[in-house]
Design a protein that fits this description.
The chain is mainly alpha-helical. The protein has a single domain, classed as Amino acid/polyamine transporter I, CATH 1.20.1740. The protein has 20 helices and no strands. Helices cover about 80% and strands about 0% of the residues. Helix 12 packs across helix 15.
Length: about 425
């Protein structure tokens, strides 16, 4: 008798849960995985760059942006997972099937740009973490990052579960690293709560950083990927079983993205506690690492670099997976994984060769992501609210209104950023 693969055993366990023969945590675990993979996009090197700048320059003032962005992310990742579970097709496929051809091509082009910006940030971040740990130049670290992530991606040949488990390990490592950092550099909890609950934009530059935080938190490629990860992952034979799968998915989204949000807030808090008083000029990941050594000791700097490395490796895997999904599901064009990896590696090498500032490149890549974000957000609102697509699983009125408002907020912040980029004076910051 042929032995079942790990993925097949996961599906069998999930079927046991749906039949009522597994309960509690044992019943939930077979359904956990897609949101954990998506959550790594919310702890990628772009988050490191924007959160360090936010904490160092503005203390705890922009924590509310991180909190709001994470709540928006929970809602839209849940909608993306829902689309995949209910329709058994991905968001990109649904757009291709439902929207006019010129719109689809425009969406694909925008989404590819977003995927490239994502890969740029994640690949650069992993290489930077390796460079900080080893002292090697960035070029060989870029090569090493490419080799490692390609090797990890090859686990996908064994089904969905091995990659889910590997990325879960990286998520745990990043979370533990920032838990340790909070003990090493304890924040002012009063200032923390005030910054998290009191909206404020201290100056015009805070808009750019806030939009970058949103772009680093609510990730376009994660919205596309999540629906792809949930489609056909756990077969549901009846509407009741599909609702049960949706319920487990929503629980996973809240837990996984809730933890990712706490990690992001811990990043800002660490930067505020360590750098704001006396080192507010710290705006680069490398400078943050080297400044931590005399301030908090080599152990804190080591933990910081290891978490950046784990973030870079895992998010680079997720970015490549999302890029494949976007290409093959929008335009039915698939390229070998090694070629996609090579295409991904090209922009970071060019930037390093040109001598570009790595952290600023990371921040602006997140701004690009935020500008591309309305495309999948609006598509999700339209598709998951459409009974012709979702049947009886279409969004209720409250969910539809909340999703629409969230998309409007992102569009408004993007409009402010565009005005600022083109030099339009913002009178309320004078």
């Amino acid at each position: 008798m042929q032995r079942l693969t790990l993925s097949e055993r996961t599906v069998a366990a999930g079927r046991e849960t749906l039949a009522g023969r597994r309960r509690g945590l044992r019943g939930f675990l077979p359904f956990a995985g897609p949101a954990i993979i998506a959550s790594i996009a919310y702890m990628d090197p772009g988050n490191f760059a924007t959160n360090i700048q936010a904490g160092a320059k503005y203390n705890y003032s922009l924590l509310w942006v991180v909190l709001v962005a994470n709540m928006v992310a929970m809602l839209f990742q849940a909608l993306s997972a829902k689309l995949g579970i209910v329709t058994d097709i991905s968001l990109a496929q649904a757009c291709r099937d439902r929207f006019p051809r010129p719109v689809v091509w425009a969406m694909w082009g925008t989404s590819e740009i977003a995927a490239m910006a994502t890969d740029l940030a994640e690949f650069l971040g992993g290489a930077l973490g390796l460079s900080l740990l080893t002292g090697l130049a960035l070029f060989p670290c870029l090569l090493a990052t490419g080799v490692v992530t390609y090797a990890l991606l090859s686990l996908g040949d064994r089904g969905f579960r091995p990659i889910e488990l590997v990325i879960s390990g990286f998520v745990a490592a990043i979370g533990l690293a920032y838990l340790a950092e909070l003990f090493v550099a304890p924040p002012d909890w009063g200032g923390f709560l005030h910054g998290a609950l009191t909206p404020a934009l201290p100056d015009a530059e805070a808009i750019t950083l806030s939009v970058g935080i949103i772009g680093a938190t609510v990730m376009p490629h994660a919205l596309y990927l999540h629906s792809s990860l949930t489609q056909n992952r756990m077969p549901a034979a009846t509407p009741a079983e599909r609702r049960a799968v949706l319920r487990f998915s929503n629980i996973e989204v809240v837990v996984a993205l809730g933890l990712a949000g706490l990690v992001n807030m811990a990043m800002v808090a660490m930067a505020a506690a360590a750098f704001h008083q006396g080192h507010a000029e710290v705006a680069e990941i490398g400078a943050a690492y080297h400044t931590l050594v005399p301030l908090l000791g080599g152990g804190a700097a080591l933990v910081f670099a290891l978490s950046l490395l784990a973030s870079g490796f895992s998010s680079s895997m997720v970015g490549t997976m999302a890029g494949q999904t976007i290409m093959q599901d929008f335009v039915r064009f698939r390229i070998p994984l090694w070629l996609r990896r090579m295409v991904t590696m090209a922009p970071p090498f060019v930037l390093v060769w040109l001598g570009a500032n790595v952290t600023q490149s990371l921040v602006w890549s997140q701004v690009v992501l935020s500008l591309a974000l309305p495309v999948p957000m609006v598509a999700l609102v339209l598709l998951t609210g459409d009974r012709r697509v979702m049947g009886g699983f279409a969004n209720g009125r409250f969910t539809q209104v909340a999703a629409t408002l969230a998309a409007v907020v992102v569009l408004a912040l993007n409009a402010l950023l565009v005005l600022q980029i083109f030099g339009v004076a913002l009178p309320f910051f004078r």
